[in-house]
Amino acid sequence: MDKKNTDIEVLRTLAIVFVFLAHIPGILSPDSFYWKIFNISRFGSGVDLFFCVSGFIVTRSLLSKNMHLMSFNDFRHEAKLFYIKRAWRLLPAAFFWIAVSILLAHLLKSTGAFISFRAMLKSAFFAATQTQNIFFMTCRDHGGCGNLGIYWSLSLENQFYLLLPLMLYFFNNKKLCFFMLFVFIIQFFLPRTLDNHTPVAWPIRTDAISLGVIMAVISTKDLHNKIKPKILDNSFILGLTFVILTFLLAVFTKPEPIVFFQVGLTALISGIFVYIASYNNNYFSGNRIVRSFCEYIGSRSYSLYLTHVIALATTRGFFITHNPDYSAMGTFVRLCFFFSLTFLLTEFSYRCIENKFRYSWKKKTTIDG
């Protein structure tokens, strides 16, 4: 068994930090200094990094099974196990926080913290059926997604992974790489920058996931060792590389595009990050303190993603809807409330839902067997 890849945990931490930076302006003053930064970078590329990491991890977990060499009955069994495992890993927490959002939309309607109860039910339907990315194309432009809008990325991932076992069955590794490269290339030059209008191709993009799949295949080949970035053994070059890639990942989310294909570039940068991390060489996690911190945040990145928007909406409802205090002290209090609530909700989600249900698929398959 491979040792735990702590560099991947660093990338998960970086991705969730970007997600927070993308959403936190909602509780800050419109005149705050952060909005000047936000007008340069929207930090929306955190999801691309998540996609690429996910594509790498999930594909690598399946490659050892050699599905393309299986009989159809063996493949059907393995695919069933994969779907059940993934459902138990992700859906309990997702469904729980969908239900909480519906409840809060009713209980806190007077605060304006959440969209209307009826609108929340509609958004919840698409989130629960894993089609939120399709709904997102229309609901975002008129504010009808609510805090469940973030489920667009979860829906897209689950749609992709519904097809991944089939692709692994019909394609050998070489054909899979060429197919994923084709998927990446045909999207690369599409103008998909997210601004006041939601481009159709934005919530259905699979280029970063495709690169993650390619990196997973390459990581199992002799070629992987031949193209190892030995230059990164130099700590200065390694640090500079991390800073440059992080900067580019941020700047290519500028509302006024630097280049029209900047979303494709964020997928490519994510792929470079995952390529470096694929060596599991502690390139990004060499420092013990950094490693420990990122292992903690990375392990909870899914729950952080689900809960932080609920904490944001609640913070807005309690502190901003009526007579907002944008003083330094008022901002400090709001931020403390938001981060504290996010921490509490995340720990509850991780400990009581994620960890409780993530291995329930084993019981399910044992009973079925």
TrEMBL record:
InterPro entries: Acyl_transf_3_dom, Acyltransferase_3. This is Acyltransferase family protein. Residues 6-345 form the Acyltransferase domain. GO terms for molecular function: acyltransferase activity. It comes from Erwinia sorbitola. Keywords: Acyltransferase, Membrane, Transferase, Transmembrane, Transmembrane helix. The chain crosses the membrane at residues 10-28, 40-63, 90-108, 150-171, 176-194, 200-219, 231-252, 258-281, 302-320, 332-353.
